[in-house]
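S.,

Sequence below, as promised.
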Amino acid sequence: MEQLLKRARECAQALEKQDEVLIVSHVDADGLASAAIIGCALDRIEKGYEIKIVKKLDPSVFHEVSSAEAVIFTDLGSGSLDLIDDLGPLCVIADHHQPAGSSDTALHLNPHLFGFNGATDLSGAGATYLIARALGQNAQLSDLAVVGAVGDLQHVREGRLAELTDLSSTKLKNTLLWQSKRICRLLANKHDPFISSSNIVQIPIFPDLQETANKFWDS
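The prediction came back faster than expected:
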């Protein structure tokens, strides 16, 4: 755990030296939460930033990234390590997917590199949150880290979040956060229609939504 936190501090120190940072993040709930976390953290230390949300890292994304001063990849990047060294800008990666390839220049924060399971122990938002904490007083952003973890269904296997991901258990009782978790259960399965998803959520988000929607589609 200490080595994981050390790497987070190294990532934070590198970002602190930059004036502008491009945030490139994944389009799902975990990626959106990750982008929000690091964006808020950078804003609080008066660093300029731009957020780019992508489905995947492809040549067009890398071409755009190459002109940036510094870039942080959140909830993606670990699978494209072989391409990072040729980009040019400072690259920080906060991801939880299985790493592929290697990079001599990227600052890479990933639970798999430190003996943890990226599928259950720490999400992309969780990794990004560790960097945010190293950037300053950002403990309140832990809510977003939990939203990212639930959006990636990291709570499903054990019926709860792992201790490493559950960074602020007392805040889980917050009503807004619980609503966010329910919404993320819908967003996490992008292949199902909204109504089908709403029918399998354990706790409906909106009262009478299912009955009203089903009447509409049947009419």
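The longest strand covers residues 20-26.

Coffee later?
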